[in-house]
C-alpha cells in the first residue's frame, strides 16, 4: 500500500472532475490526500466539496505569488508518491518540487486536457493575450509551454485520450467510474417517478440531461436546436450546473418550459440523477481542445447504462463504437442529433441493449478497478533511486 499526494491545478474549479474519481479509485487500496491552490475563489468546487478533506492554500494567479504558494503547498505533501494533475505551473510545479524535497519520491503526471491552446478564441486574441500579454498571470499558456520540457522528469504519465498519448506518451487512463455507485440495478433507482420528484423533474416526458460547464465545444446549442425539431417535440432538457449562466439562460429562452435548470448536483447524487433521465447528449464539437478530451459525463452515463448521443470528435467513435454502445451524431448537425433522440424514444429495447453494452465497455476499460490497476502497474515500473535529482 502506498500513500498518494494528488495535486490539483485549482481546487475552486472543475479540474476536480478528473482528480476525484482517480482519488476514489486509488483509495480502494491506498491512502490518498488531495492538495491544491485556490486561484478563483475560497471554496472547493461545489459537487466535490464534501468528498475529501482538501489541503489548500489561497493564492493569486500572479506568477511570483503562485510560485511562492506552490512551494508552500509542496512541503505539505505527506505521500510516498506525488501525482500532478495537468502539466501546469499550479499543479505540476508543486508536485515536482515535492518529489525532490526533502527526499526523492516518485512523480506521476496526469493529462486530461489540451493545455497548449486557449479555448474558443481567435488567433488575434491568442496573440494579444497569450504572447504579447499575460506575463504576470501564472496560468498563461506561455508558462505552460515553457514548463513542458520538465514533464519528462515525471517517472510515469497517464493520459485520457489518444491525442494526448501521442504528445505525452504514457498510459491511457479513461475517467474512472465507480461501478458500485454508478449501478443502474441499485434498488433505490427502481422507482423512476420517485427520483424525478426528488430532483423536481417533469414526470411524464422523455428527458435529456446536460451536466457540467456549458463551454462552446460541448455543443449545448446544437442539442437545443435538435430538441426544437418536430421529431423531438416530446423531449425536455435538464441542465445541471452553475445556475443562471449566460449559456444556460440562452438555451432556457429557446426551449422555454421544456428546459429545467436544477443547479449544481453533488457528485454523490449524479447516479440518481442519471437514473431519472432517458438520454445523455455529449455533443463534442470539432475544435482542437475537444479533440483531446474525453468528457467525464460520457463515462458516467455509460456506467449507468444510459443511452448516450456522442460525436466522432476525438476518441468518441472508439468509446461509443459504431453505434453498438450509443448513438453517434454529426457534431454540427442538429438533424443528426435529433434523429438519435427520436430513435431512442421510439426503440426502448435497442436503447437498453446499447446501454448495457456501454456499461460492459466501462467495466473493461474505464472502471475504478481498471484505473487503479493501471496506475499501480505504472508505478511498479518506476525505478526512482536510479534517477538523478534535478
Can you give a write-up of this model?
The structure is a single chain. With 390 residues, this protein is α/β, with parallel strands linked by helices. Helix content is 38%, strand content 15%. The protein has 16 helices and 13 strands. The protein has a seven-stranded parallel beta sheet with strand order 3-2-1-4-5-6-7, with helices on both faces. Strands 8-9-10 form a three-stranded parallel beta sheet, with helices on one face. The radius of gyration is 21 Å and the shape is globular.
Summarize it:
With 390 residues, the chain is α/β, with parallel strands linked by helices. 38% of the residues lie in helices and 15% in strands.
Strands, total number:
13
- Strand percentage lies at 5-15%
Number of helices: 16
Distance between the termini: 27 Å
State the major sheet: 7 strands, parallel
Describe the global form.
Answer: globular
Mean pLDDT: 92
User: What order do the strands of the largest sheet run in, or round the barrel if closed?
Assistant: 3-2-1-4-5-6-7
SSE-based structural type: alpha/beta
H/E element sequence? EHEEHEHEHHEHEHEHEHEHEHHEHEHHH
State the low-pLDDT regions, or none: 384-390
Kindly state the percentage of residues in helix: 25-40%
Instruction: Provide the gyration radius in Å.
Output: 21 Å
Write the topology of this structure.
Layout: E1 3-8, H1 16-26, E2 31-38, E3 55-58, H2 63-74, E4 81-85, H3 92-100, E5 107-111, H4 123-132, H5 141-147, E6 156-159, H6 162-168, E7 171-172, H7 192-198, E8 207-211, H8 220-227, E9 236-240, H9 246-255, E10 259-263, H10 270-276, E11 280-281, H11 288-291, H12 296-303, E12 308-311, H13 316-320, E13 327-329, H14 334-346, H15 348-365, H16 368-380
Parallel strand pairs: 1-2, 1-4, 2-3, 4-5, 5-6, 6-7, 8-9, 9-10, 11-12, 12-13
Helix pairs in contact: 1-16, 2-3, 7-10, 8-9, 8-14
Amino acid at each position: 500500500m502506498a500513500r498518494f499526494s494528488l495535486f490539483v491545478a485549482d481546487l475552486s474549479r472543475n479540474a476536480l472532475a478528473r482528480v476525484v474519481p482517480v482519488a476514489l479509485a486509488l483509495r480502494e487500496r491506498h491512502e490518498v490526500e488531495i492538495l491544491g491552490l485556490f486561484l478563483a475563489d475560497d471554496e472547493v468546487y461545489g459537487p466535490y466539496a464534501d468528498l475529501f478533506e482538501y489541503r489548500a492554500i489561497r493564492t493569486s494567479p500572479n506568477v511570483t505569488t503562485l510560485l511562492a504558494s506552490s512551494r508552500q503547498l509542496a512541503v505539505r505533501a505527506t505521500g510516498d508518491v506525488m501525482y500532478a494533475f495537468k502539466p501546469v505551473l499550479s499543479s505540476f510545479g508543486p508536485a515536482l518540487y515535492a518529489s525532490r524535497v526533502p527526499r526523492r519520491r516518485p512523480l506521476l503526471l496526469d493529462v486530461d486536457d489540451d493545455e497548449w491552446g486557449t479555448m474558443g478564441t481567435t488567433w488575434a486574441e491568442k496573440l494579444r493575450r497569450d504572447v504579447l500579454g499575460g506575463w504576470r498571470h501564472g496560468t498563461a499558456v506561455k508558462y505552460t509551454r515553457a514548463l513542458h520540457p520538465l514533464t519528462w522528469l515525471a517517472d510515469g504519465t497517464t493520459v485520457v485520450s489518444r491525442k494526448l498519448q501521442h504528445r505525452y506518451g504514457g498510459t491511457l487512463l479513461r475517467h474512472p467510474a465507480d461501478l458500485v455507485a454508478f449501478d443502474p440495478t441499485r434498488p433505490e433507482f427502481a422507482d423512476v417517478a420517485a427520483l424525478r420528484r426528488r430532483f423536481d423533474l417533469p414526470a411524464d416526458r422523455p428527458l435529456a440531461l446536460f451536466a457540467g460547464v456549458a463551454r462552446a465545444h460541448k455543443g449545448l446549442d446544437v442539442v437545443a436546436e435538435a430538441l426544437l425539431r418536430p421529431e423531438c417535440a416530446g423531449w425536455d432538457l435538464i441542465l445541471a450546473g452553475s445556475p443562471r449562466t449566460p449559456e444556460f439562460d440562452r438555451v432556457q429562452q429557446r426551449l422555454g418550459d421544456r428546459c429545467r435548470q436544477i443547479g449544481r448536483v453533488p457528485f454523490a447524487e449524479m447516479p440518481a440523477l442519471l437514473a431519472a433521465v432517458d438520454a445523455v447528449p455529449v455533443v463534442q464539437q470539432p475544435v482542437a481542445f475537444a479533440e483531446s478530451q474525453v468528457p467525464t459525463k460520457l463515462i458516467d452515463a455509460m456506467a449507468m447504462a444510459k443511452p448516450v448521443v456522442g460525436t466522432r470528435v476525438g476518441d468518441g467513435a472508439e468509446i461509443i463504437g459504431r453505434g453498438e454502445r450509443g448513438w453517434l451524431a454529426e457534431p454540427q448537425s442538429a438533424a443528426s442529433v435529433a434523429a438519435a433522440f427520436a430513435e431512442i424514444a421510439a426503440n426502448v429495447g435497442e436503447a437498453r441493449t446499447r446501454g448495457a453494452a456501454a456499461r460492459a465497455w466501462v467495466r473493461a476499460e474505464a472502471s475504478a478497478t481498471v484505473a487503479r490497476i493501471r496506475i499501480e502497474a505504472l508505478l511498479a515500473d518506476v525505478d526512482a533511486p536510479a534517477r538523478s535529482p534535478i
